[in-house]
Design brief:
The protein is an alpha/beta fold. The strands form 5 sheets. Strands 10, 11, 12, 13, 14, 15, 16, 17, 18, 19 and 20 form an 11-stranded mixed β-sheet that branches. It has a 6-stranded parallel β-sheet with strand order 5-4-3-2-1-9. A 5-stranded antiparallel β-sheet has the order 21-22-27-24-25. Helix 5 packs parallel to helix 8, helix 6 crosses helix 8 and helix 9 crosses helix 13. The two termini are about 25 Å apart. Bound molecules: alpha-D-galactopyranose (GLA) and zinc ion (ZN).
């Protein structure tokens, strides 16, 4: 079993505190230099200690080809340093100057329809273009040489939210080379892997292969899946090229990219080993139609995913909004308490930073009404500014939490390749709801205050007691064997409907589903049924079942009809022609066991099922007492001290029973125990020494 790490070094060794800061674009105010000094003063008032500069600054750094104007950035870096503020320095590749796109049109991205984009927007570059790679190399080299020894430099922020795809000729060739590498130069192997005899799609020369297109091939699943993989690999390769001069010139400065949570196109597990710290941008939609609890549960999942990407190492909340976003259909303000709550939620799940987009509202262009620490009014006397200053003051009291770990004994699978394959697959329901299903299986743990990691199929399973794999449709080579080993060694594994159906190239497993998971689950799935909204089946627990389930539960949407090989039935279907067949089974293997849930269920089933597992496996909870609905408890630890975050995502006050343990409230400094009250959207950080 892998020994857990309890304390990680701070992201920046010169700053052993929480990082608090924002995206800062002083170049927009270059003709009002008094704004710069006022900004630095106000940063100090908010307890901001790190500003992100240079994102999208290319035209201000190189207004003409080969003419570099670093003067303004020198001034800003110096001003920050003299105020004791650090800089997250970005490379500007997320958007380009118009001169560059005019002179080198090959840089502009080509869409799936094979039309080349015009200049504009951002993340609009070809990831293959040698010209753009060279331009980035020159720029990043210049930045690293100029600021490598600057006292303000703390972290490199490479580009901004890498995403998307390019279908230009350069990329088509790069895709073909990538495929040659993957299939050992064998077109025959590729044709077999993609099952191309179907519809006469067999390729007889590499040049015939084209990326998927709305005007051409878009249903060859193996092709689509490999295109997604190639696109991520090419983006990662572009990132590596961007990072190379930074790594060479400033080897001790950490490098990161800002991610976008569960973004469909970006398999962030491919980036994770290449960055020094994970950074994420998250804008939960508080106060929208759904409840804030739903939003909080979703945000918790994403934070857990980000922390797990580097095996539990604290991550950066690189962007969040201090008040509103401007891109949602409706943009509600954060209600009082919500900014502190939302920020502390990230910290509770393992973030060592609270950073914002953006420091100051721009005066023009598309984000002029996006929330910012400093509003157009320009002074500090605003609700949002005070909210941010409050968070700054709180973070200032949490030094002991920096670098601490989240002690997760449970992990939920969330796997991009599996998601892509499911999205492409034409069966059951058009919307497979993969992400929602992962959220649904994570939520009972969140509600119970059980720390949970979110991992891909390739992660190390050895540190967990419980592994949950919702809709593990694709099982890549070696994964089933690793799961078997985990179970045989005493672990508990949970799988659901739509598992073990295809291999890594999207070919169906022969010999019965769930394919390579058959042995560990001990069932054979014969058929998959799907019903439209509003039609239900029922899960009926068998009397005296080992989990103590007693109620019946509604089942919806997807229902698998299965036979037990070695498993035991815990519950059966209540209706339809498959009434009485297994709906929930358990299978013993070695020292452990595996559960198989045959159908999608109402929330109450997952809640009761996982509560039973939490009890039986003795999974540690943040606090022992039951939590009121809407209150989340999360824990970080350095192995000795426990830092308990209690957060109320309801607008009404709630009482929480801390039991007889005595805690110190790190914000007020007072000792607390027994019942404590949390105001609507209230949040507390408590410390307990064991
Ligand atoms: C993203 C970008 C930022 C900004 C925000 C707005 O996260 O990285 O530049 O556009 O969205 O919410
Ligand atoms: Zn391209």
């Amino acid at each position: 079993m892998t020994q857990p790490i309890h304390r990680y070094p701070p992201i920046n060794s010169r700053l052993p505190h929480f990082i608090h800061g924002a995206d800062y674009n002083p170049e927009q105010w270059a003709d009002m230099p008094e704004v710069w000094d006022r900004d630095v003063e106000m940063m100090k008032q908010t307890g901001c200690n790190t500003m992100t500069v240079g994102v999208f600054s290319w035209v201000s750094l190189e207004p003409e080809e080969g003419v570099f104007t670093f003067g303004w950035l020198d001034t800003i870096m110096d001003k920050l340093a003299s105020a004791g503020i650090f800089a997250v320095l970005a490379t500007p590749s997320g958007a380009r100057p118009a001169w560059m796109d005019r002179k080198y049109p090959e840089i502009n991205r080509v869409g799936g329809d094979r039309h080349r984009n015009l200049h504009g927007m951002r993340q609009n570059h070809c990831m293959t273009s040698p010209v753009y790679r060279e331009k980035c190399r020159i720029m990043n080299t210049a930045l690293a040489q100029r600021y490598g020894n600057h006292p303000a430099l703390s972290i490199w922020h490479v580009s901004n939210e890498y995403s998307g795809e390019c279908h230009c000729d350069l990329c088509q060739n790069a895709f073909r080379s990538w495929l040659k590498g993957r299939y050992g130069d064998s077109l025959d192997a590729l044709n077999k892997a993609w099952w191309t005899t179907f519809w006469s799609h067999t390729y007889t020369a590499w040049e015939q292969i084209e990326s998927p297109s709305p005007r051409g091939e878009r249903l060859l699943h193996g092709l689509s899946l490999d295109w997604r993989r190639y696109t991520v690999d090419q983006t990662v390769d572009f990132f590596k090229a961007e990072a190379a001069p930074l790594r060479a010139i400033t080897p001790t400065v950490p490098v990161t990219v800002n991610m976008m949570g569960t973004h469909y196109f970006c398999d962030y597990s491919r980036f994770a080993p290449l960055v020094d710290v994970i950074a994420n941008d998250l804008y939960p939609s508080w106060h929208q139609d759904g409840s804030d609890m739903d939003t909080a549960a979703g945000a918790a999942f994403v934070h857990d995913l980000m922390r797990s990407l580097k095996g539990g190492q604290p991550f950066m909340l690189m962007e969040s909004t201090p008040s509103i976003v401007n891109w949602s259909n409706v943009c509600p303000l954060k209600r009082p308490g919500m900014h502190r709550l939302s920020s502390l939620q990230a910290v509770a799940h393992g973030s060592d930073t609270v950073q914002y987009f953006q420091w100051r509202k721009s005066r023009g262009a598309s984000e002029k009404f996006h929330g910012a620490v400093v509003d157009h009014v320009g002074h500090a006397n605003t609700r949002v500014f005070k909210d941010v200053a409050e968070v700054g003051a709180i973070l200032g009291k949490l030094d002991a939490v920096v670098g601490t770990a989240v002690p997760a004994e449970t992990a939920i699978f969330f796997d991009w390749e599996n998601w892509w394959a499911l999205e492409e697959a034409k069966f059951l329901h058009k919307d497979k709801k993969y992400v929602e299903t992962c959220f649904a299986h994570h939520r009972p743990f969140w509600e119970a205050g059980v720390p949970t990691d979110v991992i891909t199929e390739d992660a190390d399973f050895s540190k967990y007691k419980l592994l949950v794999a919702p809709m593990l449709y694709m099982v890549r080579p070696g994964v089933a064997e690793r799961i078997e080993q985990f179970v045989a060694g005493g672990g508990t594994f949970v799988a659901t409907y739509v598992s073990g159906q295809v291999d890594q190239t999207d070919l169906c497993f022969l010999g019965g589903f769930p394919g390579p998971l058959r042995r560990v689950l001990g069932v054979w799935v014969e058929e998959d049924d799907a019903l439209p909204d509003g039609r239900f089946n029922e899960l009926i627990p068998l009397p005296g079942n080992a989990l103590g389930l007693e109620k019946s539960y509604a089942l919806t949407e997807i229902f698998e009809i299965s036979h037990v090989d070695t498993a035991k039935v815990l519950a059966t279907y209540g209706k339809d022609f498959y009434a009485g067949t297994p709906a929930l089974t358990v299978n013993a293997l070695g020292k452990g066991r595996s559960y198989y849930i045959a159908a999608r269920s109402e929330k109450a089933f997952l809640c009761d099922f996982y509560s039973a597992l939490i009890r039986q496996l003795g999974l540690k909870r943040a606090i022992e007492a039951a939590l009121p609905t809407g209150v989340s408890a999360q824990i970080r630890t350095d192995g000795r001290n426990k830092f308990l975050f209690i957060m109320n995502f309801q607008p009404t006050a709630k009482t929480i029973d801390l039991g007889r343990c005595v805690y110190v409230d790190l914000i007020s400094g007072l000792e607390v125990s027994g019942d404590i009250e949390l105001a609507g959207y209230g949040s507390r950080v408590l410390k307990r020494a064991d």
